[in-house]
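Weekly sync notes, structure subgroup
Attendees: PM, AL, DS (notes)

Item 1: joint prediction request from the bench team. They want all two components modeled as one assembly rather than separately. Inputs as received:
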Amino acid sequence: VTSFVRHGLSRRRKVLLLHATDDVDAFALRLADGDDDDIATALDSGQLGYRGTSFTGDMSWRLTDPPGCEQLGEYEQCLAEILGDDAVVLLCQYDDGARADVTAAHDVDVASELAPIGRCGYLAAAFTGAGRTVRLARELDFEAAATVAAVIDERRAAPICLDLADLDFVDVAGLRALRGTNGHPVTISSASDAVRRLIALVGWDSDPAVELRFGYAV
Amino acid sequence: MSLRHDAFIYDSDDTFVTEMSAHLQAGLAAGAHAVAITTRHNLGLLRESAEADSDNVSYVDRDEWYGQPARVLADFDRVLRDAEAAGAPCVYAIGEVRFGTTPREWDRWTAYEATIDRALAGRRLKVICPYDERVLPAAVLDGACATHKHVITDTRRPSPSHADAAAIVRAHTPAPEPLPQLRTLQPPPGAHELRELLAAEMAAHDVPAAEAHDMLLAAGEVFANAGRHGGGATSLRVGRVGIHFVCEIADAGSGLDYPLVGYVPPRAAQACGVGLWVARQTTSALELLHPDGGGLTVRLWT
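Output from the run, pasted for the record:
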C-alpha cells in the first residue's frame, strides 16, 4: 500500500485512500514510516486522504412523491445518526420551486396497483379501467390536496372518473382537490360513506359539474 | 327576486290562518314550492283552510325541523337547491321557530334568526316567521323585531329596531365556560396524527362511530384553518363534558371576530369558509373563544 501511495504522489496524482480508521493523520504517519515531510505536504494540499467529506444531492425527485417516499424522513434521520460527527457534511437540496415542473411525472408515479401518493404516506392511488379512472384509498386531507390536484390537472384533457369506495376519510380541501386546481367537472363512480357524507355537506350532490354514478339517498 | 325574511306577530288562530294561507297561495300562484313549518296545531289549521290544503305544499312539524341552528340552515339550503333542480322559480316558506322554554334557548334561536339574512342572502326564498304573541316571552318578540327587516302585524312595515346580525349573535351567545376538566395534549404535527390521537381519545370515551367520524372531520377542518390562518395549532384540549365529547384547538394567529363564520351554505367553487361550515354541521355546537393573549380557540362538541 505504501509504495502504491508513494508512486501516486510522486506522479502528482490525487490519492484516494479508503481505510477503516477515524484518524487520518495517525494513519498517514504510519504510512510514511517516519519520513513524513512528503506525506504532511500531501495531506495539507489535499493530494492524499481527506479531512472529511462534504456531500450534496438533489432531492427534488421527492416532489414527484414516488412510491416509498413516505419513508424518506426516517431515512434521513437514520443517516444523521450514522454520520454523527462533523467529518461528513451532507447537504440535501429540496427545491420546492421545482414542484410545478415535476408534476408531469405524476402519471408514472401513480401505478395501476395502489401505490402511496403524497408526502405523508396515508393516501394511496391507482389508475384503473385502462387509465380512465383514478382510484383513491385510505385518507385524503388538506396535506395531500396539492398532490392530488396536480394529478387531476395532468389528466383534465379527458373526462375524469373517480373511484372513492375505499377512501376512509376526506376533508374539504381533499374533496376540492379531486376537481383539480380549477374545479374541473368530475364523475364519481363509487364512494365510501365518508365521501358521501362530505359530498352532501358541501352540496356537490346538486352541483351540475359533479356527476354521481352511485345511488344517493340523503 | 332575492331573499325576503319577515316576522309575523300574531295573536289569534284566525289571523294566523288568514295571513299564512294567503302567503302559501301567493307562492302556489307563482309556481313556487311552498313549505309550511309550524306547530302541529297550526298545521291542522292550515290543512283545514281549503285554499292552503294542497298537494303542492309540504307540511312539516316544527318540532322535527328546528334541532340544531346550523343544520336548519342546511335544511333550508337543501329545500332551495331541490326547488331549483325541479325548475321552481322560488320557494315560499313559513318558518315558525321553536324557541323552547329557557332563556338560553331563546337566545340560541334569536341568534339563529339573525343569521338567516346572511346565510341565505340572494336566495330565491320568501319566508315568513310567525311569532305567537300569546305564548312567547317579550325577549323573543323583541328579538323578532331586531332580526327581521320587516315585521307583519296588521300590515307589513320596516322594523324600526332591526339590528346588525353579527351584533345580535354576539349579544345572544353565552360566554364559553372555562371547562378546566379538559385534558391538555400536545398538538400533533400532522392532520393524520391528529385524527389518530382523537380517534383513540373518543374510543376511550365510547363515542359512537358516526359522531366520532363527524368530530374527526370537524377537528380536521379547524386544525387545517389553524395551520392556514393561525400559524399552526398551539394547544389541544379534549375530554368528556356531560354527554358530549369536547375538542378544543387553539392557535396564536390574529384571531377571528366574526360570529357568523361557517353559517353560509357553500356555493360551487367557493374557496373560503367551507371548513367551518362543515365543522358547524358535524358538531352539536361550535364555540369561538378569544383568549386574552390573542389567537383563536375553537371548541367543538359532539
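Discussion: Residues 94-110 of chain A have pLDDT under 50 and may be disordered.
Action: AL to compare against the crosslinking data before next sync.
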